[in-house]
Amino acid sequence: MSDVVTALDTLDLAVSRAEGLVDEATLKEASAAADRIRDRRGFLGQTLVLALAGGTGSGKSSLLNAIADQHVTETGVLRPTTEEALAWIPAGPEPGLIDLLDRLEIRQRVEQTLLPRLAIIDLPDHDSVVLQHHLMVERMLPEVDGVIWVFDPQKYRDPLIHNDYIAQLLDYQDQFLFALNQVDLLGQDELAELRADLARSLQEDGVHSPRIFETAADPPQGAPRNIEALREFLDEQLDDKAVSTGKLLGDIRRAGRRLGDEAGLLSGAGVGFEERWPSVRDSVVEAVTDGLGFDDAVCRVGDFLTALSVETGGRFGSRLRGEFSYPMIERELGAAIAASGVGPPARSPRHGLAKAFHTFWFGDADRELVIDRRAGVLSEELDGRFGAGMHGLLWERAELGATLALVEIEARQAAGRS
Can you give the residue range of the structural domain that contains 161? Predict the structure, then answer.
């Protein structure tokens, strides 16, 4: 199955294959559209990909277990338990999600069927003493759709997470969620005061309107608290992403159709060259061997190329006529005739009455054999000097047509799954 990532990659391929087949302005327009889509922050597929980030003991892993309603990852409070990132992903994940996890080198993957359009990556603790963990967190944040920053009542003002992470990544703040975890340890008044203080500290970081969820992911007694409200919010984010994905896919399809229109491919790329060229080539050979004249042979090649250029149209038709101009046709046809040896028949060794009787009864077999052999050589020369070049250009056009058709198919398939 296709997804937005696959359709976008195919559009990139179409842009590269369109060079020389469409004008530069159209190429730049399609390339800019692809860049705009690719520059979109977060994962481009249909799955909402979130990262859980937080310090040691904040309860990230417990929060993931609570959202998943199952034991997904180990928890701990005294030391960093999450030694490497773990991904909780839908069963049968889309290809783009697999590519993302491969690129981020996330090997631990747990498939789930509870929330089939949601993936959560449990990141290593941001305050881990292991330098690689810090680098991993920084590298992943721009790649995902959103980040849930998890705080605990003891370290919610940790300057490391505020100064080194949140304040440095404000370009992504519209993708940030904040979870004040372990609220079961606080009284009601204490919770209200702490939540207000957390909001102030986030605003001081530069987060304009922080969205804060109060959770108790793993209370000593009873079930997790306030997890359902977080799940409902994530459902809303999934719906928003579906709308956004539809817009992106529309942009991809429009860019592809624009390329196809400029290349003259909206009605198809086929011109039946393989079926038509042999008869044109044979007619040129016949014109030369039957003595109809060099100019007649040139016109037959030229008429065929004119027909192709009209049928393909646009920049490609002009390119076809430019590469196979009449001076080029005359030059190459003359060289082909010279290479084949087709021309006035050689003088026969037979003379007089004996030759006349031989020709009357048996025909001039020697001459016919020579002509047939030279006609075969001329046919090969025409294939090499004209047929191969025309086929090569038309093949480029056909490749672009097939690629643009694939863009449309992949975008439609992705839209059907969003």
Answer: 48-225
